[in-house]
Known about the structure:
370 residues, 11 helices, Rossmann fold, 2 domains, 17 strands
Amino acid sequence: MFDYLIVGAGFSGAVLAERLASVLNKKVLIVDKRNHIGGNAYDCYNESGILIHKYGPHWFHTNDDNVFRYLSQFTEWIYHYHIVKTFVDGRLLPIPINMDTINGLYGMNLSSPEEVNKFYDSVKVNVGVPKNSEEMVISQVGVDLYNKFFRGYTLKQWEIDPKDLAASVTARIPTRTNRDERYFTDKYQGIPKQGYTNLFQRMLNHKNITIALQTDYKGLVDSVKFDKMIYTGPIDSFFDNVHGKLPYRSLIFEHETLPMEYYQGYQQVNYPNEFDFTRIVEWKHATKQKSHLTTITREYSVLATDEMEKYYPIPMESNHELFKKYQAEAESLKSVIFCGRLADYKYYNMDQVVARALAIFRNKITGKGE
């Protein structure tokens, strides 16, 4: 007999399992179809002893003191600013676009934020309120920078013209007027010192938590007794796609270990215009591992099929309207709580996933609110 059945052992499910077990002394069964905990944040050592993120890079960053304090119970950190370069016109240039990006691309010598602002003012397009991803970018940096840095990358990532994607997709990437080359400016940045999997192991190491891997929850609901369910999977799958399938993007990873200390100068290089892959990640820059070998990962974005992992909800108005039908179904169920990127059909950063799980625990489970 369990108080809660939690479907999915990623951040949403693990945080709620830990809170229920340690704060409320509830008995929790957490199940996952995969053969490991950690969801998409799972990391592991490959055959060459290099620590890699199996499902693509997870660079942790947050300004949320509460989230950082909570996760720090289960890990120490490697503090690390995430530096990303973009390969454009044969050069590696900073992204987000900053003063050095403009100077390097156009052979200019801008030296102050005021000069950079004047440059943006001279090239940006007045579109009023941006209605889509293309308008969001050209309203900030103009057409040429949009074409060089954003259009190709967005097409590879989504296979949808930026004119048809929500403005929020590109609004996530800031534009800078100084030389700050950090991808994020959050107060806390880094990765868990012993890896994400170790963090999850410590989070779920509680006498009240039972873990069942390689398990489909649908095979358990009639044989295991529980009071309530927390569901973190795709919301359309929960309702057997009764209103139709929600589309998702998936990813394909090409890992390669090379006989050299480093392959590239940065942990991540984006390729918006050349090649079929979107980026190359080299893990040792972030993990600080010492090895005479290095592993790189090329990442390709594809439309998810039924057999593939679902990574990104596709932010289009028609998809949001379909999601709202499932959301209405979900809200009518009193014994099931829906939580997470797939259950909410919304792109969350890791810290946002944790914050939402903690908020659900406070507001929906304990009823204590803030």
